[in-house]
Amino acid sequence: INAEYGVDRNWQEKEKPQTKSFNMSETQNIDVCSVSNFHQVITTQIHLSLRVDFDNSTLSGFVQLSFRLVSAAAQKIVLDVLQLQVKKVTLWPEDKENLVELPYEIHDFTSYGSGLHIPLPAQLEKKEGTTFSIRIEYQAGEGPALTWLTKEQTAGKNKPYLFTQGQAALNRSFFPCQDSPAVKAPYSAHIYTPKGFTSVMSASTSSKEAHNDTHDLFKFEMKQPISSYLVALATGDLVSAPIGPRSQVWAEPCEIDKAKREFEGVTEQYISTAERLFGPYVWDKYDILVMPPSFPFGGMENPCLTFVTPTLLVGDRSLCDVIIHEIIHSWFGNLVTNRTWNEFWLNEGFTMYAQRRVSSELLGHEYTCLETATGLALLTNEIQRLGTSHPLTKLKISIEKDINPDDTYNEVPYEKGFSFVSYLRSTVESDKEFDAFLTAYVKRYAFQTVTSADFIAFFFETFPKLKESGLENKPGLEFDLWINQPGLPPHTPDLSPAQKLTQPANELAAYWLHWKSADNKQPPHTSIKDWPCQQICYFIDRLLMHNQSQIPTETLDKLDETYHFSQMINPEVKLRWSRLTIENQYDKNLSNVLSFLTSQGKQKYQLPIYRSIAKSGSAAGKHTAKQAFALSSPSLHANVRNYINQILQEMSA
Fold first, then answer.
1. What does each C-alpha distance from 512 to 155, 422, 523, 525, 558 come to in angstroms?
2. Alpha-carbon gap, residue 138 to 64, rounded angstroms
3. Which whole-number Å values give the CA distances from 5 to 8, 12, 336, 434, 444, in the listed order?
4. Nearest one of 38, 40, 83, 86 to 63, comparing CA atoms
5. Which of these is catalytic: 252, 326, 348, 371?
6. Residues 88-97: contacts with CB under 8 Å, at least 24 apart
7. Among 41, 385, 416, 589, which residue carries the largest CB count within 10 Å?
8. Where are the beta strands (DSSP E) in 141-214?
9. In 3-state terms, what secondary structure has residue 75?
10. Cβ(89)–Cβ(134) under 8 Å?
């Protein structure tokens, strides 16, 4: 599919390197989050044909799936489904003659999915390599992959909006599929869209044509094989603007000018820098879709079309590191993908490392070290919250059959994963040498899926002297300790270059933690308006991590009077100032907390604030939490809504 990486239509049959490793589990190829039998029958092509119906909040039509028999012993196809109305299944030969309707049954699997069981037709030749297609007519609408917004819930408030979110195991409620990252296939789609609306997808090519008096037909094709969770659709009142030679930004008309100003120019700079470090960008184009406020993530790396939160549009590009992160997924995550969700760190840890390499090149090492310090502080807080022996603080986690992989999401695969990759970097001579290794790693595993064992084997294949030196068993830094054991990372990178930025923040935090109204001494910095966003966040984090006693109300009064935190529009600052005031029962800021919670639906902002309210025990805080949830609940993503509801229930217990 891409000559640069030598990928062809038989990519799924490529022989992967045989690997053995320390204490890695031999069950690494089993995906307990999918009921599909992809080890016997594997998807080779997906085609969607769906009609968008906003009146009934449904997608209806069919998915046509092409398969290849991997095992002659296969007796049936088992697909993942969730809250889909399956209407008909047909064996669909290439000549479209002799169509055969097939029986099917839906069996329970887990709380987040069922199995669609389709017996293989008797006339099908049961031998390895046999290819065939089936067409499944169905309707989707209620499942967690689809979010339907009324026009009042959008930014422009002109037209309703639909978007999908597939990660981790949600797209089984979008279309029947083998919903495991281990299965990669190209796809195409025909989306019949009401006149006046625009549909966009995570696809390398697209076109639009009139269908009839009421609908337009949008056609899409993703030529490269991708995992099912990366198939994404959005339909709404959308317009676009160019932001680079291979990029455009999509948004509602009221947001398009802000979005263009935020991303124009820098997007191509990020892509070209990543190409220089890690090899060619293989996805043809890189577009950005600015989502409605309820979008639950900072960004979702859908190939060719990153979905991003509108909270990035702060006017000063201070949060564009999110765009770097999502671009880097074009190499780590989309091109080389974790085989199961047990090893999500293979997507996110590498992406964090590569993101910071690009950031160092473009923004400087000092700034990147500061951003890293902020990230590691989040990791420390997360592990303290979970407990240092909690199994979710491992890099390689164990997901049981009934555990939704979305419920395992936290900072560990990102920041502990980054720390491990950063440690490996420290064992070789230079950034340039490690960049070359990562480029070779991407080339070896392009369009494939990997395990930790695959990666470690390739690392030692590239650096045999490190294998001979016993690096993987170095006391206190054993690879088994890194990957299979819980707790904080045994090594973090040298962040001393950030001292130029962290020292003033530390000094300022120390001043305010000891401030008394009777003091006449001025703070070391009376203005921080020229500080970068990460430095301000680092400063507030120092105040948050102070847990010896409550920060007095008069101190918080003076802090806000001096630095105007309650008036800042940057959401990262809003998050931290909200948490600081909540945890110190500074009720004067609760109206701003309410406004922030109801203005966006990003999980990273929502959950920490609700947890801080629960931690504070404040009656006024609890009232604000209930009020915020009542106002924002209808537009929140289903997962975020459920998580907040759990916190509120625990708060009321």
1. 38, 34, 8, 11, 9
2. 11
3. 9, 14, 12, 19, 8
4. 86
5. 326
6. 88/136, 88/137, 89/118, 89/134, 89/135, 89/136, 89/137, 90/134, 90/135, 90/136, 90/137, 91/121, 91/124, 91/132, 91/133, 91/134, 92/64, 92/133, 92/134, 92/135, 93/132, 93/133, 94/133
7. 416
8. 146-149, 161-164, 184-194, 198-201, 205-210
9. coil
10. yes
User: Which helix H or strand E contains 133, and what residues bound it?
Assistant: strand 131-140
How many Cβ atoms sit within 10 Å of the Cβ of residue 591? 11
Residue 514: exposed, middle, or buried by beta-carbon count in 10 A (0-12, 13-18, 19+)? exposed
What are 521-558's pLDDT values in tens digits?
A: 788 888 898 999 999 999 999 999 887 689 999 999 99
Length of the chain: 653
Q: Residue by residue, what is the 3-state secondary structure of 419-456? A: HHHHHHHHCCCCHHHHHHHHHHHHHHHCCEEECHHHHH
The secondary structure of residue 177, as a DSSP letter, is B
- What are the residues whose beta carbons fall under 8 Å from the beta carbon of 432, sequence distance 6 or more? none
Peptide bond into 373 cis (omega under 30): no
Q: Which pLDDT value is given to residue 1?
A: 36
DSSP 361-373: HHH-HHHHHHHHH
Which pLDDT does position 635 carry in this prediction? 86
What's the one-letter identity of residue 55? D
Q: Please give the full DSSP string across 266-299, using - where no structure is assigned.
A: HHHHHHHHHHHHH----SS--EEEEPPTT--SSE
Number of helices (H), then strands (E), belonging to the chain: the values are: 18, 22
How far is Cα 451 from Cα 70, in angstroms, rounded to an integer? 21
Q: Is 554 a catalytic site residue?
A: no
Judged by DSSP in three states, 375 sits in helix
Residue 11 has what pLDDT? 34
Q: Is-contact 203 305, C-beta < 8 A?
A: yes
Q: pLDDT tens, 69-105?
A: 999 999 999 999 999 999 999 999 887 788 999 999 9
As given in the structure block, the two tokens for residue 67 are 């398969």
Angle between the N-to-C axes of helices 365-386 and 417-426, in degrees from 0 to 180, rounded to the nearest 10: 130
Mean pLDDT across the stretch 501-522? 89
Q: Side chain identity at 291, as an amino acid letter?
A: M
In sequence order, the β-bridge partners of residue 148 are 162
Q: Which amino acid is at 503?
A: Q
- For residue 78, what is the enclosing H or E element? strand 76-81
Q: Which pLDDT score, from 0 to 100, does residue 365 have?
A: 95
**Cα(88)–Cα(146) distance, rounded to whole angstroms?**
22
CA distance readout (Å), 600 to 299, 369, 543, 581, 633: 14, 29, 25, 19, 11
Is residue 36 a contact partner of residue 78, using CB atoms and an 8 Å limit? yes
- What's the 3-state SS for 624-645? HHHHHHHHHHHHCCHHHHHHHH
Question: What stretches of 178-309 adopt beta strand conformation (E)?
Answer: 184-194, 198-201, 205-210, 215-227, 233-236, 239-244, 247-251, 287-290, 299-300, 305-308
